[in-house]
Amino acid sequence: MTVSTLLVVLVVQRAAAGASEDQWPMPAKDYAATRYSALAQITVGNAKGLRAVWSFSTGVLAGHEGQPLVVHQTMYVVTPYPNVLYAFDLSQEGYPLKWKYRPNVDPAAIGMACCDVVNRGAFFANDRIVYNLLDGHTVAIAAATGREIWNTKVADVRQGETTPMAPFVVGDRVIVGTAGGEYGVRGWVKGLDLATGRVVWTAYNAGPDAEILARPETFRPFYDKGSGLGQTTWPPDGWKHGGAPVWGWLSYDAALDLFYYGTGNPAPYNADQRLGDNKWATSVLARRPGDGTLVWAYQFTPADNWDYDAVQEMILAELTVRGRRRRVLVHFDKNGFAYTIDRATGEVLVAQPYVTVNWAKRVDLTTGRPEVDSTKLTGASRGSVQDICPTLEGGKNQQPAAYSPRTGLFYVPTNNMCMDYHTTPVTYLAGTPFIGLNAPYKPGPGGNLGAVIAWDAGLGKKVWEIKEKYPVWSGALATAGGVVFYGTLDGWFKAVDAKTGSGLWKFKVGSGVVGNPITFTGADGKQYVAVYAGLGGDWALLAGDVRSDDPADVRPPASFMPDLARHTSLGGIVWLFAL
Amino acid sequence: MAIRAVAAAPLIALLVTAGQQAIPPAVRYEQHVFAGGAAPLAGTLENPFKGDRRSVADGEKLFSAFNCDGCHSLGATGGQGPSLADGRWRYGGADGAIFHSIYYGRPRGMPAFGGVLPPDAIWKLVTYLQGLEPAADLSTTSW
């Protein structure tokens, strides 16, 4: 171990020490992205006694993806655009505001955010709250006072780059990425200095090796060896507007000093325009936080024909796979397969469908490649290709899963839909969508549009399933009390038994849930659970007439889901529950 | 690309009403309230292709070719940009107002296309959008 990696590990351990079980300092609670809490006051036995103890309207109507943070009896809430940051004092009655921070965010970002003006949350590090504004700025705010410490422009909104993801802080590095796979951006991650906000390194996801930071002496992929893959797997210059954005969740293994993130779709959707594997779009990449060095990469969906982004979380766990204890990352891809991967090497150990999949028969573990059903290939030359499962919303999308080391199971919010896919040739025009697609959705087998499942990632098997009427777009929370929490698009917040999936409690929170529940210990020593209500994300575009603040915008309902607007409209509310 | 960017003719050439001084084009909501009750002097932009069937068809093609559908959805029923098919307008539905929305863009995420589309093409887009028929029972939803 070099001195610098030793330092990083020490810094990380210090940060982790401050993050006891009573707090929630980063999006997924811990670096392994488990969304698991050891708090156990709320149990399978008493969860039916949960009640709402507090709520707060954020004043913003867009989709409230993401989650609050709780550190030192203060709760931090970031809203969707215009990205207001609220700090609530949890030690006083009624939880009054300590301060709020109101950034001046460029409204041009509204048109450049493909899928509603969401924000996926903040990260607490070094007594500051670090988060992204939608218009391509990363800010660090003093946790005690709300004062802006730095504000760095990382992305160019005029080129279709926006920044809905939560930053990820490792040691003194703030890692951020750009969205814009629908606008033909060239995806990247950047490492900023936590103290000053200065950009220390930039790593593209496609293009020349020097720019994706793949050096021959350090880049060791398990499957796709060789140099220049970020360029040679594209038509000439295709990678320059090839997408591969970053808008999901990150994780970090301190022992290996690697952080993991997934990349989104290659652009445009019309695969005829970008023949080749299109590396490293729809992939997982493992990099060093200090300087961004690429250590390994694996592509889930080579030559993506279906908009199967791979930005979903990579949850770190230690599991038994075929009799051997392995340190793995587990990933539920949009493409419908759940992958269990050796996180040191990138070797795929298990890859099984967790939802209905028909674009590929299986994943070949010796090559790492899916066996694609050629009748499901798309591209403008193939016209409208019928009945592909899952849809481009994915078996799962941004909604993060949780992992309970207590049950050894992953709790996964899923979508159950299939689609037709009809692409057309499209011209790159900076700052406009680079898509060219008509893809009507239909319900998947069974007719329920979503489900929450419990998954055994060592075996690659579903253990139980709760069918839901609508896609489950909220994240999951697992606790040591044996309770799993999640929310639904029609506005229920639910607690279920982690072992069996049986329902324990539910409460109607006022708008559809697309955010992620968290839990913490309050000043009174009691366990609380917090979640956002606030329909939106892709459903702001797809649900039909769920927006009532604009008299000049009335929309028809989605054919595959005509009645969601019967149960919910937009509206951002922070909720707290306790026994 | 079929329709390549053509340098836009100066907007001023489209002004139908031209006084002694250059009067700005009228861009306003129909329901504007005027200070003192008097409307400001303004030139009116009129759609030269109004109701022309060929222009509607051309406009529909332009709507895809210039990626409008990527933000407003197929049929302009609303995506990250508002519905343009509901007969309701944030910035006004008069010829000049829609022209202005496309030529100069609008602040909350509508790009300015004046630099890539010549005025004729914009008027065809206006003609297409004006031709979209809103549903008869648009204002009420019932289950």
Order of neighbouring strands in the sheet with most strands of chain A: 1-33-34-35-36
- Structural category of chain B: mainly alpha
Number of helices of chain A: 5
The percentage of residues in β strands of chain B lies in under 5%
Number of domains of chain A: 1
**H/E element string of chain B?**
HHHH
CATH architecture of chain A: 8 Propeller
Looking at the structure, what is the overall shape of chain A?
globular
Residue-averaged pLDDT of chain A:
95
Q: Number of DSSP strands of chain B?
A: 0
Q: What's the CATH architecture of the domain at 2-15 and 49-130 in chain B? A: Orthogonal Bundle
The profile of the biggest β sheet of chain B is: none
- How many beta-strand segments of chain A? 39
Measured distance between first and last alpha carbons of chain B: 44 Å
Helix content of chain A: under 10%
Largest sheet of chain A: 5 strands, mixed
What is the rounded Rg of chain B?
Answer: 16 Å
